[in-house]
Amino acid sequence: MASWIVVSAAFASINLCLSIREMEYFSPQSCKELMHRYKTTEDGLYYLSTPSGTVYQTYCDMTTAGGGWTLVASVHENNLYGKCTTGDRWSSQQGGHANVPEGDGSWSNTVTFGTAEAATSDDFKNPGYYDITAEDVAVWHVPNNEQVNQWKQTSFLRYHTETKFLNSYGGNLYNLFKRFPVKYNVGSCPADHGPSVPVVYDVGDAASNHNLYGPNIRAMTDPGFITFRALNYEKAAMAICSGVKLKDCHTEHCCIGGGGHFPEASPRQCGDFTSFDWDGYGTHAHWSASKQLTEAAVLIFYR
Ligand code: G3P
Ligand code: CA
Ligand code: CA
User: Fold this and answer.
1) Which of 51, 100, 139, 244 could form a disulfide with 221 if both were Cys (CB 3.0 to 4.6 A apart)?
2) Which ligand lies nearest the alpha carbon of 256?
3) pLDDT in tens, 22-51
4) Does pTM top 0.90 for this prediction?
């Protein structure tokens, strides 16, 4: 007993006395660094550090396509009937209005929220979103409220990019969205969409991903891509169109996140999952997405 106290006290004093430089040495800044420096091969929750020494916990996928994937964000829809209301952190919690063109601004600011463990039950954004320099992204669609140890088994879509496209956009989505602001009235569709990047599926496939959207928007998209910063006919901006490349501008039925103003029938399309419910919640008819897609969080990883 006595020796346990001495040992734990010694560890406590070591932990309390670490300088930022030592923190950097001991705490990796990404799951990729964790994997390479410490030969860590297990999926799960780990502690990472920011360059300035803030320690945070997130999930590392150490096995998919070589591993080293850091969870940096999740987009969760808590209430599709609320239109840019509480919980719409990836669009606007301030109502839908032209006076708040960027909404909450989460795609290109350094505000963080949520916890890794709650990433399928609420929005999550950690400092890795803006301070990790990465090359590729992975996306998982995981049913709402699943516990961490169930994410991998219950995810019905998992895919990743392999083109190292982030090298051309500042090394992460924070910088990409600085270049392509998720903000109302910054450009026109289709001329000013951000990049569409081909994806490789780890769970599901391009067709099954496509099929989860409503038939109307399916006819206006090509499967097998992820698109960043889409615009619609009314100049509303959205952040991510998961699994598709756009051929038309009714993008609000297949893209998530957004600025603070969606003029068409405002504020009906405003919210984290935009207008997935245009023809009814989870009906999977006309423009509406399936219930499965509507009730699943979108987890975003970097490597
Ligand atoms: O995005 C769909 C909307 O612009 C038109 O909807 O109901 O007239 O087919 P609707
Ligand atoms: Ca949300
Ligand atoms: Ca429309």
Assistant:
1) 244
2) 2
3) 655 678 999 999 999 999 999 999 999 999
4) yes
Is residue 1 in some structural domain? no
Q: Establish if 73 belongs to a structural domain.
A: yes
Ligand nearest to the CA of 278: 1
Name which residue sits closest to atom 5 of ligand 1, judged by CA.
Answer: 250
Alpha carbon of 155 to ligand 3 centroid (Å) = 29
Q: Three-class SS string for the chain?
A: CHHHHHHHHHHHHHHHHCCHHHHHHHCCCCHHHHHHHHCCCCCEEEEEECCCCCEEEEEEECCHHHCCEEEEEEECCCCCCCCCCCCCCCCCCCCCCCCCCCCCCHHHCCCCECCHHHCCCCCEECCHHHHCCCCCEEEEEEECCCCHHHHHHHCCEEEEECCCHHHHCCCCHHHHHHHCCCCCCCCCCCCCCCCEEEEEEEECCHHHHHHCCCHHHHCCEEEEEEEEEEECCCCCEEEEEEEEEECCCCHHHCCECCCCCCCCCCCCCCCCCCCCCCCCCCECCCCCCEHHHHCEEEEEEEC
Cβ(32) – ligand 1 distance below 6 Å: no
pLDDT in tens, 275-297: 999 999 999 999 999 999 999 99
Is residue 2 assigned to a domain? no
**Does some domain include residue 4?**
no
State the total domains in the chain: 1
- Please give the residue range of the domain that contains residue 252: 9-302
